[in-house]
Amino acid sequence: MDTRWPLLILFILVWGCSSDSSDDLFIDCRYSAPERIFSNSLPNVEEHSFFIDKMVGEESLTFTDGSSLRLRQSGCDYLKQEFEFTAPSFDRQKSIAFWFEESIDLLHRVSEMGPEYISYRQWAKAMEQKVRSFELDKTVMLADGYYAKVSRQNSRGAAILLLTLSEKP
To answer: Cα separation of 11 and 159, whole Å?
Structure first.
């Protein structure tokens, strides 16, 4: 009797059952694994990438104007999106008001990338209505189940805008 076939079948079964799929990590979660938001064919985008590391999806865009955006999505039962935006015009000396205006502008910019991104315009409008409530590194409730936080990170002589949108503070 040829023993290769049973071994091959056993190998296929073990390999199939032991896959390290990120969907398996979300089996008891309200939400499934993060998915890419952006497509490879957006205008003014030079580079686009997406990958999942355990329970966090990370997407990166490099724009033709020299700015870049990294989006980290996470959450099992409560979603969180963390935007990390850099632009040539950012420096550490900008006023606190500048970072809030840039956060709102970023959401408008994303909402204009296509009809599937229109929900980011609602986030921008909600932030505009609560702009007086914002302080750097402070989470603000925009509405029930909608929170935002604006931060700034200094890196190698430049500054990075950090915007977090979430369902929980």
So the answer is: 51
Residue type, 117: Y
pLDDT at 16: 38
Annotated domain spans of the chain: 22-166
Rounded Cα distance between 53 and 128, Å, is: 33
CA distances from 78 to 9, 29, 85, 104, 167 (A): 40, 9, 23, 22, 6
pTM exceeds 0.85 for this model: no
Q: Who wins on pLDDT, 156 or 148?
A: 148
- Amino acid in position 71: L
CA nearest 132: which of 94, 168, 96?
A: 96
Burial annotation 105-135 (CB, 10 A radius, 16+ → b, else e): ebbebbbebeeebeebeebbebbeeeeeebe
Question: Do the Cβ atoms of 110 and 39 come closer than 8 Å?
Answer: no
Of the candidates 41, 90, 40, 45, the one whose C-alpha atom is nearest the C-alpha of residue 63 is 45
- Mean pLDDT confidence for 37-66: 93
C-alpha–C-alpha distance, residues 49 and 59, integer Å: 6
3-state DSSP: the chain helix, strand, coil percent, rounded to 5? 30, 35, 35
Q: Which residues pair with 127 in a beta bridge?
A: none
